[in-house]
Amino acid sequence: MSLLEITWTDPVTGRRGYVVIDSLVRGVASGGLRLREGCTLDEVRGLARGMSLKEALVYRPGDRYVPLGGAKGGIDVDPLDPQAHAVLKRFFTAVLPVVRAQWNTGEDFGLRQDTLDEIAGSLGLASTVEAAFALLDEPGQARERLRAAMAVTVDGVPLPDLVGGYGVARAALEVAGARGIRVETAVVQGFGSIGGAAARYLARAGVAVVGVADRDGLMRNPAGLDVERMLAARDLHGTVDRRALRPDDQTGAREEWLDVPADLLVPAAMSYVIGPEQATRVLARLVVEGANLPTLPEAESVLLGRGVPVVPDFLANVMTNAWWWWVLFGDIEPTAEAAFAKIDVVMRDLVASVTRYDLPLRKAALGLAESNAARVAERFSG
């Protein structure tokens, strides 16, 4: 059962917004805010539970960063709706006391951090993670580290837009190695911060990204797409300008992403995109969840029955969240080199832990997260 659930109704449009705090550690919780047409309280509740697992999963006793609790927010509005920004500001104004005291939030599906920062600033909030700064002895230095990290770019892409997808790529490659799965080709659904970065770093590891689906449809090439060219032609919503595609690249309907033959499938866009029927169409030998909750439980059972492992979201995409806190708490320098090196070490250790036993990866990762959460609770008891 959640500790706190808020349902807000916009007085202008009637749109609903939600905040769920699943757990608190030292009085605070962490989790992003999403904009999605059709977003529900149940969805946000599940995402908040996932954040509790993500926080606990990366616990390392030697780090300054100690996992926070888990939370999430969501608004039932299309991010491209002309009224979305006004709805977002009214929602954020209404839940501001929770943000100040308990809920550290940031960008998620359909929402960019700079938009959220702009609204927070207009409401007198220095950042969207003020509750975490209150835990620090030297918050001024932490603000400088975070500011410096946010200004880093790597080959034209901001570092904050890369760390999560880099972690997804590392999770895929580490699990493939541990399970003896040869990964030479990949399909990525979604080309925002997670999907775009996952595609980049899979390609740089020698994996041909043969299919990418964005809001406007599918792009495919059996020899491999030019990921860097596509990243340069991507808009703020992760949609690629088709004029940037090469003559031998092909396009198709968005729904055809499951029909492209590949060794690896990375759903990195929306929740609930792989149901039982879609699971029967999956051609990949490994599924790595870049998005939150993309695979329904019944669909995962189908995939496991076919011998297709599923790397759960709270393991695969954990690095966006962890990177923020490693920088803020001072575990790493605000550089790309430090970020990628820390992700490499932590993801390698996590995958080694969850592949040690003959268990579904979700079950093994859940056990590790629950064990870590108990250790954190014991550390701060009394």
UniProtKB/TrEMBL annotation:
Biological process terms in GO annotation: L-glutamate catabolic process
Keyword rRNA-binding among UniProt keywords: no
Residues at the site labelled Important for catalysis: D108
Keyword RNA-binding: no
Keyword annotations from UniProtKB, A to Z: Oxidoreductase
Catalytic residues (UniProt): K72
GO molecular function, a single term: glutamate dehydrogenase (NAD+) activity
Domain of life, per lineage: Bacteria
Family to which this protein belongs: Belongs to the Glu/Leu/Phe/Val dehydrogenases family.
Protein name: Glutamate dehydrogenase
Organism: Nonomuraea endophytica
